[in-house]
Amino acid sequence: MSEPVLISGALMGSRELLADFGVDAYAIANEVKLPERVFDEPDIFVPAARLVDFLEIAARDCACPAFALLQARRLPEGVRGLEIRGHGWMLMRSAQTVRDALYDFIGVYGLYTDAGRLNVQSRRGDLWLSYTFLPIGRWGETQIVELTLARMCLFIASSINREWYPAQVTLRQEPQETQTYIDFFGPNVLFGAERDAILIDHETLVAPLAISGNELLRKSPAHRPEDLDGPALITEARTILGALLRHDDCSVEALSKSLGLSLRTLQRRLTAEDTNYRELLDSVRADLAWRHIQRTDLSFTRVSDLLGYDSQASFNRAFRRWYDSTPRTAQRSKKVNH
Q: What values do phi and psi take at 128, rounded to 5?
C-alpha cells in the first residue's frame, strides 16, 4: 500500500500562529522530518503521518488542545480557499447551494489527501457530516480531524456570508477546557462522543451560495471562458490538469468542463497553440514528476500514483523519456546539490 499523503496547504499560517505562542515551527518540522518549504508552498504533497504529527506536537508545545481551531482561521476562506490545490474550486463551479457545494467538495476531496474521508448521513432533512482519518499519527489524529471539521464550518459561514454554527457537534476528544470549542462551534457541542461530526440544518443546506463558482469565474477576467485563449488557456489548463491527476477523471472532457469550454472549442484553441490534450498532460506530468522528486521525500511508487500511472515501471520509462535519467539518479542529484 502506498504511503498516504496530505497537501501542505493545511499548514498555511501555522508558522506565524506558533510564533504567537513563542514556539519555533521549524524545530517541529525538523522533528517530524517535514521540509521547511511547507510553510511557503501550499500545494506540495507530504507524508500524511508527518503533517499529522506536526499538528499534535504544535498543540502540545503551545499547551493548546484547541490549536486546530486557531489554525483553521489562518487558512483561506470560502471557495477561494480551494485554490490551494490547483484551482480545485473550479471543479465545483456548478454549485448553487450549500448542499451542492458540500457534495461537490466531498467528490473532489481526494485532491487534498487520501488519508482522510468525509462522510454524510441524512437525518430528517438535516445532514450529518463526519470525518475519519487513518490511524497513522504517533500521538493520534485529533488535530487534523478537528482542523477539517472547523474548516468545513468556516467554509459554510463564508459561503452564506454570515455567522453560522452547526445544529450539533460531536467530538471524541474530552478537553479539560471547553469554552474555546463552544466559542467556535456554538453551544451544542457533545464531548467524548463516538465520532467527530457536525450537523448541518436543512435551512442552511438549501441556502444559496453568496457567490457561486460560475459567478466567481465571471468576475475574474483571468478565468472567464471567453478570455481563455492563447497562453492564458495553456496556463489555466495546466493548473487544472495538475489537480485532476489526483481525481478519478482526468479526461479531456473533465478538463473542458472545468474550463467552461465545449470540447470542440477547447480542442480548437489547443490546436491553435500547436498542442493537444495528450501533449499538455504529458508536459504537466513531467513538471510534477521533477517537482516531487526534487522537492519532496515521497517514494517513487507514491509519485507514480500521484501522476496517474498504473505502475512504477511505466513512470520510470516516462521519466527517462523526459529527462534522460532515472528518478533515483535525479533524487541523488538533489541530495548532492542540497
A: -85, 130
- Residue 77 and residue 158 in contact, taking contact as beta carbons nearer than 8 Å: yes
What sign results for the dihedral spanned by CA atoms 135, 141, 144, 147? positive
Q: What is the C-alpha to C-alpha distance for residues 304 and 52, in angstroms, rounded to an integer?
A: 23
Q: Which domains does the chain have, with CATH numbers?
A: 5-205 (3.90.1520), 220-337 (1.10.10.60)
Query: How does pLDDT run across 252-286, given as a tens digit for each residue?
Result: 998 888 788 899 999 999 999 999 999 999 999 99
Q: Are strands 116-123 and 126-133 parallel, antiparallel or unpaired?
A: antiparallel
Checking 32-41 for CB contacts under 8 A at 24+ apart, the result is 32/57, 33/297, 35/295, 35/296, 35/297, 37/295, 38/8, 38/11, 39/11, 39/12, 39/14, 39/15, 41/8, 41/295
Q: What is the DSSP letter of 246?
A: T
Tell me if 24 sits within 8 A of 107, measured CB to CB: no
pLDDT at 128 over 70: yes
The neighbour count for residue 330, using CB atoms within 10 Å, is 15
Cβ contacts of residue 23 below 8 Å, gap of 6+?
Answer: 58, 61, 62
Between CA 186 and CA 209 the distance in angstroms is 22
The dihedral sign for the CA sequence 157, 184, 204, 194: positive
The secondary structure of 9-70 as a DSSP string is: GGGTTHHHHHHHTT--HHHHHHHHT--GGGGT-TT-EEEHHHHHHHHHHHHHHTT-TTHHHH
Tell me, what amino acid is at 302? R
Contact 145, 131 (CB under 8 A): yes
Instruction: Please report the pLDDT score of residue 132 as a whole number.
Output: 96
